[in-house]
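WARN retry 2 of 3 for item q-0093 after timeout on previous attempt; input resubmitted unchanged.
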Amino acid sequence: MSRLERRIVEAAEAALAQRKYVTAIDVLTGIRWLHTRHVDTWRQGRVAALEELSAVDGAKMADAVAALRRWALAKGLTPSETAYVSGGRDRGELRFVAGGDDSAFRVHWISPDMSEARRRQLAERQSKAPDLVVVEQQQAWRCAGCGDTGPYLIMESAGPHCLTCADMDHLVFLPSGDAALSRRAKKESGLAAVVVRLNPRRKRYERRGILVEEAALALAEEQCLADEEVRLRRRERDRERRAGEDVEFQAGMAMEITRMFPGCPPERAEEIARHAGQRGSGRVGRTAAAKVFDTNAITLAVVASVRHLDTDYDRLLMAGVPRAEARDRIRTTIDRVLDRWRAAAGAPVRDRPRGETA
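OK item q-0093 returned
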């Protein structure tokens, strides 16, 4: 098995353990040929094909999907072709590659362990058209319809359109923060759209709220007032349950760190697990791979801790040293710490994780 095939299998195994099915998107993002922000842009209908945003060409993407298929068949997974539709106003079919047949990319590989009820839920969700996606734009842009601009745009085949040209200017904005209100307002609204904005620091689109009809929002507010006390009690129970799950996950991650790096002090392993596995942090410890204790994801979390706590990396950044140069300068120090922590395990001392340059 080649190194690339091993990376594909690792990404597929992580996705399968997380949700009992695997997609081409899982693999392409798992091996880092694509970032989630690229997938978001593609789903919004802002590029003709996903290949345009990939680090490799369509032929190599197809090779990766072929490797996924071989692995999935050997595992006894069940293929299920899925429609990919744009979140733009015209609901156009999304393309994976610019030319040729891309049907292999649309196959979802489902575990035989998935229950029938879960299979039905998955099929229902996949058969539904995705939410319309409106982008809260932060840079200058022009509507392809009227030539004007505005705070929001939505994609159509002819390009970005303002809400007036898209016949959506009668909708009102409901910011994120109250899940029950958002869910009910969306359900009551005949037309609704999710509003996202690019976070330049985290390099991904983040949900800002929804656009709904004003009458639907008013009705949802009445419904929420009627059962507010019940929902408060439910939220408290959910908060306690999630806190317990986080403690259990972080404890398991700390154990895996000490297994892979037996020389790492136990209190340091616990600190790394708490930091990397913090809910909502977006750190490597919250990725799908880390949740199944993928070796590469765990190593990346340890490397990040060593970089900030055991080297001059932060001081170099504060002194104005470019990030790439700063990482080059500290690479030897990181290798030395990892070698010392790995020693008792007999692991390869120069086995740097994928994508990691110290």
